[in-house]
Write a structure and sequence with these properties.
Number of helices: 2
Family: Belongs to the WD repeat coronin family.
Oligomer: single chain
Organism: Sylvietta virens (Green crombec)
InterPro entries: Coronin, DUF1899, WD40/YVTN_repeat-like_dom_sf, WD40_repeat_CS, WD40_repeat_dom_sf, WD40_rpt
Number of domains: 2
CATH superfamily of the largest domain: YVTN repeat-like/Quinoprotein amine dehydrogenase
GO molecular function: actin filament binding
Low-confidence stretches: 1-7
Distance between the termini: 99 Å
Structural class: mainly beta
Helix content: under 10%
Keywords: Actin-binding, Coiled coil, Repeat, WD repeat
Shape: globular
């Protein structure tokens, strides 16, 4: 796509990015070195969570937003997982509830105490077991409380009802690892990208595939629903290995509406869409820049606006929900950028330049709030409802009254669609078999070493006994 800005009549034409000063950053954080393609960061109006590098299991930090500056090395962590943490997401309706998934095949729900952690947290409010391999993605439902989706390396998507602590649906239509999941505005549709180079639009409650695109020229990596416009945007790689974005009609995935090449770099492109301003942000993993566009309803659909540039490469980006923005500064979007080399989390505000200090109603329309529109039973029975909207002028500091209550249950088999998920393990891949073979070889070597040490010790004892018997004292 051309890098030149197209000067059009738009209130967002001059949006600019402003990085926070050093004292307003979070410093001294051992950001994970895991190469999994996720953000490793989640943020809401109260807390910032970052996956950290740790030995002997997986852990992440939860820091109150006002606690900026240098973080102590012994700062308390959430460290209950036995494997590396691969994804974390805050509950959109309860600000102290966070979901995490890990290489230990579990999904866990954590309840963060008021004011943040005072000591290490090892006990989760709820542990969810249903995947037979590591779990790479978690996603909360946008309008229903206590509905969570998880995607694992067993090629399955599980829908969890946290009120009962059990999976209520298994989506088993993928032939390879699921790379990304995205809900539409009311949560009635789910879009997924997969390593089998296919883009799918699903009805999540039935698991039925409504639309499917075989992306041979545009190998998809990430997908995002563009609000209520009935369109999807994907990022991926073209046949010439250049980074590319494509716009799709959700009701016809036979051909993309447009395909645009971005550049020839190799890092994964993360898309972020703001439905209130119709702005799309593109940030590459390992890049220092963030491009942003305005999306229209007519051709050419995408209009380039500007680019925020920084010399520091980003590993991932957390995004502040709308009700956590500073509306007095005309802030329309805020990123939290992970800079691994510096151990730094840097807030980046996207600001519309306005001279007036009064509330700018034209750039802050009614936006999805912190109240769920549906209960889990209503959504699972087939009801769809748009999100409950709130005004950022009056209610953006309002706290939700909802409280999470973990169900009391015993550990047992997990049966969905007549299949025990914990017993029905899929065939192992070649890499997994190789890893198992090498582990067994290491174990055999260790046992041999132990036996040889025991043989040497036995010989020493036999020699000592012989010498003792032959000594003059005993004759």
């Amino acid at each position: 796509m051309s890098w030149r800005p197209q000067y059009r009549s738009s209130k967002f034409r001059n949006v600019y990015g402003k990085a926070a000063s050093r004292e307003h950053c979070f410093d001294g954080i051992p950001i994970t070195k895991n190469v999994h393609d996720n953000h490793f960061c989640a943020v809401n109006a109260r807390f910032l969570a970052i996956v950290t590098e740790s030995a002997g299991g997986g852990s992440f930090l939860v820091i109150p937003l006002e606690q900026t500056g240098r973080i102590e090395p012994n700062y308390p962590k959430v460290c209950g997982h036995q494997g590396n943490v691969l994804d974390i997401k805050w509950n959109p309706f309860i600000e102290n509830i966070i979901a995490s998934c890990s290489e230990d095949t579990s999904v866990r729900i954590w309840e963060i105490p008021e004011g943040g952690l005072k000591r290490n947290m090892t006990e989760a409010a709820l542990e969810l077991y249903g995947h037979s391999r590591r779990v790479g993605l978690v996603e909360w439902h946008p309008t229903t409380n206590n509905i969570l989706l998880s995607a694992g390396y067993d090629y399955k998507v599980l829908i969890w009802n946290l009120e009962v602590g059990e999976p209520v649906k298994m989506i088993d239509c993928h032939a390879d690892v699921i790379l990304c999941m995205s809900f539409n505005a009311d949560g009635s549709l789910l879009a997924t990208t997969c390593k089998d180079k296919r883009l799918r639009v699903l009805e999540p409650r039935s698991g039925r595939v409504l639309q499917e695109a075989s992306c041979k020229n545009h190998r998809v990596n990430r997908v995002v629903f563009l609000g209520s416009t009935k369109r999807l945007l994907t990022t991926g790689v073209s046949r010439w290995n250049t980074r590319q974005i494509a716009l799709w009609d959700q009701e016809d995935l036979s051909m993309p509406l447009i395909e645009e090449e971005i550049d020839g770099l190799s890092g994964l492109l993360f898309p972020f869409y703001d439905a209130d301003t119709h702005m799309l942000y593109l940030a590459g993993k390992g890049d220092g820049n963030i491009r942003y566009y305005e999306i229209g309803s007519e051709k050419p659909y995408l209009s380039y606006l500007m680019e925020f540039r920084s010399p520091a490469p980003q590993k991932g980006l957390g995004v502040m929900p709308k009700h956590g923005l500073d509306v007095s500064a005309c802030e329309v979007f805020r990123f939290y950028k992970l800079i691994t080399l510096k151990g730094l989390i840097e807030p980046i505000s996207m600001i519309v330049p306005r001279r007036s200090e009064t509330y700018q109603e034209d750039i802050y329309p009614m936006t999805p709030g912190t109240e769920p529109a549906l209960t889990p039973d209503e959504w699972l029975s087939g009801v769809n409802r748009d999100p409950i909207l709130m005004s950022l002028k009056e209610g953006y500091k309002r706290n939700s009254k909802i409280v999470f209550k973990a169900p009391v249950r015993e550990k047992k088999s997990v049966v969905v669609n007549g299949i025990d998920l914990l017993e029905n393990v899929p065939p192992r891949t070649e890499n997994e078999l190789l890893r198992m073979f090498f582990r067994q070889q290491d174990e055999i070597r260790r046992l041999k070493d132990e036996l040889s040490q025991k043989d040497i010790r036995i010989r020493q004892l036999q020699l000592e006994l012989k010498n003792f018997r032959n000594s003059p004292k005993n004759n």
